TrEMBL record:
InterPro entries: FAIM1 (IPR010695), FAIM1_dom_sf (IPR038513). GO terms for biological process: apoptotic process; negative regulation of extrinsic apoptotic signaling pathway via death domain receptors. It comes from the Eukaryota. Belongs to the FAIM1 family. GO terms for cellular component: cytoplasm. Plays a role as an inducible effector molecule that mediates Fas resistance produced by surface Ig engagement in B cells. Keywords: Apoptosis, Cytoplasm. It is found in: Cytoplasm. This is Fas apoptotic inhibitory molecule 1. Pfam families: FAIM1 (PF06905). It comes from Probosciger aterrimus (Palm cockatoo).
Amino acid sequence: MASREEITVCEDEVRSLYSHLEKMTDLVAVWEVALSDGVHKIEFEHGTTSGKRVVYVDGKEEIRKEWMFKLVGKETFTVGAAKTKATINIDAVSGFAYEYTLEINGKSLKKYMENRSKTTNTWVLSLGGADYRVVLEKDTMDVWCNGQKMETAGEFVEDGTETHFSVGDHSCCIKAVSSGKRKEGIIHTLIVDDREIPETVE
């Protein structure tokens, strides 16, 4: 028969294992959101017994609510340098099953990303061993590189416009040229040190 000490040790191990598991199982959703200043990771913990809600953006805790009697609802917070509005919706599906959806600026993540691909161009490139992510916001002509809004100089050229900026000691230029087709509109090309960089689809 096991001694009382052994039973206590065993109970403590089970308790610590249980609390560790509870921590792990509270993580119910993870999203990756590509914004102009970078790709942000959103994690959501939902304790369906305690109603606990915790939102992390890029590993940093944004919201923590320990005891919530209402298990459904929404949590709203901001993401990234431009403080983009994000909302996590918590809906009951059946019994104790829940569905978690992320909205960015009031649109479902899928709709937001589809719309974003029309309003931005993204290029990912490597320069001198470092990786860079360059984003052009077509409506404002703002250029972002690795989370920083760049100082740019625009000029009109014979076949369109050129937006000049530099990354480290590399000269960069985004050329905007009409495609000549109404459906395609304007074609944006990134040129770094006289080399054309292919666009990245996010």
